């Protein structure tokens, strides 16, 4: 069980003690998290303090405590800035292709180190098939340092995943904001037959 999944479980416990689908906020690993549970499905999000090429990034974890399987994907996430501009989460393949083609070594290092700082700074969350699992599988298949960096970066991207009851996943959702910081606004997540709403601030 990864650190991120353990943190989701903590959020589930907190939400079970609160009324309805209240958004719970807390800080961990230097990131400000917001978590909400509806019908057994918990979504946790935290804006990441970096821009990679044209992308702003949000760290995401989803845990399925429902009795049925649900599929989650980056396109389920939409960020709307205060000025009304809306950005939908980019498909993982598009993000990976863009980073492999355009990202420099420092971009990749910054992305991986920032993501892992948040992920491993948490000691209460466990993911059954998230970033750690994908990273280990990706790194096992390549030998060169350059390819290892690209593989690690690709493992970070939140991918479409079917979660059986009791399973969870994590990753980074990328929003093509033309290289601008995300800023303040609202994040809407339409998944598992529910709509989750989070207010994000700089």
Q: Which key terms come to mind for this protein?
A:
globular, alpha+beta, 31% helix, five-stranded antiparallel beta sheet, 202 residues
Tell me what the structure shows:
The chain has one domain (about 5-200). The longest helix is centred in the middle third of the chain and has 16 residues, at about 105-120. It is built from 5 helices and 11 strands, in the order H-E-E-E-E-E-E-E-H-H-H-H-E-E-E-E. It has about 200 residues and is of the alpha+beta class.
Blueprint of the fold:
Elements: H1 3-16, E1 24-28, E2 31-38, E3 41-52, E4 55-64, E5 70-72, E6 77-81, E7 86-88, H2 92-102, H3 105-120, H4 131-140, H5 145-156, E8 161-163, E9 168-176, E10 185-191, E11 194-200
Antiparallel strand pairs: 1-2, 2-3, 3-4, 4-9, 5-8, 6-7, 6-10, 10-11
Summarize the structure.
By secondary structure, the chain is of the alpha+beta class. The protein is built from five helices and eleven strands; from the N terminus they run H-E-E-E-E-E-E-E-H-H-H-H-E-E-E-E. Helix 3 packs across helix 5.
* Beta content: 35-45%
Roughly how many Å is the radius of gyration?
Answer: 16 Å
Number of helices: 5
Main-sheet strand order equals: 1-2-3-4-9
Number of domains: 1
Terminal Cα span: 31 Å
Compute the number of strand runs.
11
Assign the structural class, choosing from mainly alpha, mainly beta, alpha/beta, alpha+beta, or little secondary structure: alpha+beta
Task: Calculate the mean pLDDT score and round it.
Answer: 80
Low-confidence stretches: 14-19
Shape: globular
Bin the helical content: 25-40%
Order of helices and strands: HEEEEEEEHHHHEEEE
Biggest sheet architecture: 5 strands, antiparallel
